[in-house]
Amino acid sequence: MSRPIKIRVLSGILGVFLMVDIVQADNPTAVAVAGKPLLLLSGFDLTPFGFATEEFFVTGTATSYKLAEAVTADGKWNVVPAESAPYVTRIVVVRPTDPKKFNGTVVVEWLNVSAGQDSSPGWSMSHREFLRSGYAYVGVSAQKVGIDGVSSPGGIAVGSALKKQNPERYGSLNHPGDSFSFDLYSQAGRLVRETAVNKVLGPLAPKRVLAVGESQSAVFLTTYI
């Protein structure tokens, strides 16, 4: 089932920013993982700024999509649900520890994998504003390359995917493929929105959820729209 999507889009050369009512999807579950997550966020400790950094493994069942008809030149294509598959991915949450300092906005980044591993250019370019103004941030490992790496010579790049960097920590992650990324990302958005059930934001209650992606991730988000 789904509900109407309301979208505000600001597009540029490197990125697409949008506001969206996340598509209704199956309920995933999130489990906190102790220790430092593998994601380059900053060269300094965020704790003195009143922010906590946490990682969660997210488990659910995602749906892929296929074209409902032949493609057209205008790029406005209809899709229908195709297959479903179980998944286990991870999200990284950076949030104010004091609810009074939270501005009500959560930025959910589709982590970029052009280097063959998860990176967070949205956070890198905006984190000073996030810290100053009390945003919460969630990075989502939405694509298979970030978890498993490049498995064929035709891949974009060869990098240090999560399972390669730390197989003991991330060995249980399971990504069924990028055709499932769109639904997987929607379900991560639901985790952020439905705080009464999922406490990935701790005591914070979001008013706005922004989907953010840069470069390759922006291309995926354009398709997502």
Distance N terminus to C terminus? 17 Å
How many β-strand runs? 8
What is the percent of helical residues? 10-25%
Poorly predicted segments:
1-25
| Gyration radius, in Å | 17 Å
Shape from CA axes? Answer: globular
Category by helix and strand content: alpha+beta
Which descriptors would you attach to this protein?
single chain; 31% strand; disordered N terminus; 6 helices; alpha+beta; 225 residues
Summarize the structure.
With 225 residues, this protein is of the alpha+beta class.
Care to describe what's here?
There is one protein chain. The chain is α+β, with helices and mostly antiparallel strands and 225 residues long. It has 6 helices and 8 strands. The protein has helices at 121-133, 144-148, 162-165, 167-170, 181-193, 216-224, and strands at residues 7-11, 15-20, 29-33, 51-67, 79-96, 105-110, 136-140, 208-214. It has an 8-stranded mixed beta sheet. β6, α1 and β7 form a beta-alpha-beta unit. The chain is globular, with a radius of gyration of 17 Å. Mean pLDDT is 85; it is low at 1-25.
Break the fold down into its secondary structure elements and pairings.
Elements: E1 7-11, E2 15-20, E3 29-33, E4 51-67, E5 79-96, E6 105-110, H1 121-133, E7 136-140, H2 144-148, H3 162-165, H4 167-170, H5 181-193, E8 208-214, H6 216-224
Parallel strand pairs: 6-7, 6-8
Antiparallel strand pairs: 1-2, 2-8, 3-4, 4-5, 5-7
